[in-house]
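SAMPLE LOG
Freezer: B-3
Tube label: C17
Construct: single chain, 332 aa
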Amino acid sequence: MTPPVDHPAIPPRKVGVLLVNLGTPDAPDPASVRRYLAEFLSDRRVVEIPQLVWQPILRGAVLTTRPKKSAHAYGLVWREDGSPLAAITRAQAARIADAFGPNVIVDWAMRYGNPAIADRLAALKAQGCERILIAPLYPQYCAATTATANDKAFAALAAMRWQPAIRTLPPYFDDPAYIDALKASVETQLEGLDFAPDALLVSFHGMPQRTLELGDPYHCHCQKTARLLGEALGREVIVAFQSRFGRAKWLGPATDTVLEGLPAKGVRKVAVVAPGFSADCIETLEELAIRGRESFEGGGGTHFAYLSCLNDSAVGLAMLQALIARELLGWA
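STRUCTURE (predicted):
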């Protein structure tokens, strides 16, 4: 059918893929960090405290003291091309952009900060994407990560008169492609060390213990990832959880406490990997690689190595491409 001559231009039908990661401030300065933290810590999925109680605390003590400290931490890991998390996620999208044919557009967004999910969904739709795969890059499902990324996408859809069809990438914590990629990455990096670690510490981002009790599968997903990775490597691994915040009880054991105590148990050489992160960020590059080393060496350790995330490595991109291709079946 030929449209009338005065009909608005209709772009060719496309399929969109939107990679989504957590978020980052626009710059490593207190003002930018404060804006980012205000958005992040106002998310009811992240802080499950009644807002009437939480917001005065957030706007008071938290946002008046934490931004300066966090800005310093971001400054230690900031790259010439910006935040590590944003730069790596952008590179992941760019490097698989042509993997699915000319009718598939790959874009990226952040749940908090820029580029915003709503903006990138609108951009994909404007390019003719009538079907879009939302791909939260979290291997282990958690309401505070996977669910809130999807929430934000669906909120953007609620404002659209003509919505695209949507699919979401499921968690891939035990997917053979993911475990194989982790195994290959860890083995390659271990081979490049000038020492043989006595232990391999697998550190995941922490969550309040209450989330497990309420039925969130995150803790179980992390434990299974660690078990499968250990089996694939043929060695035992130590599981710990990092990034505690506030006074509530969190999943444990705590990564910093474990690192401090390992030398007393005869572990003087350690390698640390963070398989819950799809891209290196402040939690891995500052909290683990810098402060984790300090904790371990402060306890008497002699050799420490942080093993990078899959990032935009060849094995990481091959895994990501395989996962997305599977979810696009019937679309592309």
